[in-house]
């Protein structure tokens, strides 16, 4: 598939753990050339640049000058200024989730993207795991019957001392629901469509910097019918990672290892449908990041829009912010209160 890719020079912004995953994925794609890496911590950028035989840029602006496409893997609070600066410079953009942290910021990005006409992709990588895609395909093809609900559980223990400082500051990360919850929210939206209303409850109990949502649960109503459920936690000794879809004839579930889909009819025998593992057996690389980058660059090369663009990135942010407001105010929140430029 990648043989037809147009050559593209890529500047990687950020040199943390997720940026390193993206750098490794990009190096595997013919036609993609990593021309610069920039990070506010220069030593970290230098080390990653040496690993991938490229240069550490002296500034964000220098990195942009050396690229056709800017690949943003910086902390969330930096996404808006970096996206808009890259677009003003005439560059195309990939940005890790969450796209941004507020509706006002989302509008700014949407306006900049629209005015530039440039390709902008957002990193909701769940869509690229074969098990999740197989699950959604089974649902879309009618194997489950009429839609009842879709759900996700992403629960575990993330010790506070392992976090970089920005991650514990809601002003920089958006809190757990925004920073990581958008992955699961995007999955729910991908299956169920537009969300009309959410009711959520949270705890700030274990990680516990001021007002940090270290556990969050929500139920949501879809505009087209059916409902969604979401359980998130960074503060649980119980470790659970599951997603599922329920119809009126069958249900399905995808477990942590993502190697199969368990399809369970109401009448008849359950079966496990195999899916390609997202873990490279040799390098242990997360292939979801590679498959995402491959698809994004293929679409760019063919002049097609990204599967996950600005609109999808904003929709996930709207739901995350509505969940936080619902939990804070102890009430059901309609999404129309949080609609940015996605509708």
Written overview of the protein:
This protein has 343 residues and is of the alpha/beta class. The protein folds into two domains: 2-125, Rossmann fold; 127-283 and 309-338, Dihydrodipicolinate Reductase, domain 2 (2-Layer Sandwich), CATH 3.30.360. It is built from eleven helices and 14 strands. It has helices at 17-27, 42-51, 60-65, 79-88, 103-116, 130-140, 170-173, 175-179, 181-192, 287-302, 310-329; strands spanning 8-13, 32-38, 69-72, 92-96, 120-123, 147-157, 195-203, 215-222, 227-233, 235-247, 250-254, 260-265, 271-274, 333-334. Helix 1 (17-27) crosses helix 10 (287-302), helix 5 (103-116) packs antiparallel against helix 11 and helix 9 (181-192) packs across helix 11. The longest helix has 20 residues, at 310-329.
Strand arrangement across the biggest beta sheet: 13-12-11-10-6-9-8-7-14
The CATH topology of the largest domain turns out to be Dihydrodipicolinate Reductase, domain 2
Can you count the beta strands?
Answer: 14
Q: What share of the residues lie within helices?
A: 25-40%
How are helices and strands ordered from N to C?
EHEHHEHEHEHEHHHEEEEEEEHHE
Low-confidence stretches: none
What amount of the residues lies in strands? 25-35%
Question: Taking all residues together, what is the mean pLDDT?
Answer: 94
The shape is globular
Number of helices: 11
The biggest beta sheet reads: 9 strands, mixed
Can you tell me the CATH class of the largest domain?
A: Alpha Beta
Total individual domains: 2
Amino-to-carboxy terminus distance: 33 Å
Q: Give me the CATH superfamily of the largest domain.
A: Dihydrodipicolinate Reductase, domain 2
Evaluate the radius of gyration. Answer: 20 Å
Question: Judging by the overall fold, what is the CATH architecture of the largest domain?
Answer: 2-Layer Sandwich
**Structural classification:** alpha/beta
